[in-house]
Design the sequence.
């Protein structure tokens, strides 16, 4: 897979977690993002990052999530602070190299996900 997520696992509520996405050359994509899908729910966007540095987050994030990129390690990250049980989900990294896709937040390239399980 062109994008490989890692860093998921079990975590207690209130703790922190940092997810990684090994992206190779895709780290230079026009846009990248993190999505998540909880059991029985539709996949939802968590955070977006444009290549020039602009970031945006879902309304419900409320400052607990931070998306970042490290070119030297060719990786995208998602830090989650003060995790809650509702954060339990599979987290996916996504990318797009097309300007129009990025403008419309359409992602063509996906990883296989990393599972996060939050216990109360």
Sequence:
């Amino acid at each position: 897979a062109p994008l490989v997520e890692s860093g998921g696992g079990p975590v207690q509520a209130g703790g922190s977690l940092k997810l990684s996405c090994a992206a190779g050359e895709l780290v230079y994509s026009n846009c990248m993002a993190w999505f998540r899908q909880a059991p029985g729910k539709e996949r939802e966007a968590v955070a977006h990052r444009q290549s020039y540095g602009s970031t945006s987050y879902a309304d419900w994030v409320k400052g607990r999530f931070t998306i970042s990129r490290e070119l030297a390690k060719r990786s995208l990250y998602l830090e989650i602070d003060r995790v809650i049980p509702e954060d339990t989900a599979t987290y996916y990294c996504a990318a797009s190299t097309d300007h129009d896709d990025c403008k419309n937040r359409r992602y063509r390239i996906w990883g296989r996900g990393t599972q996060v399980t939050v216990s109360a």
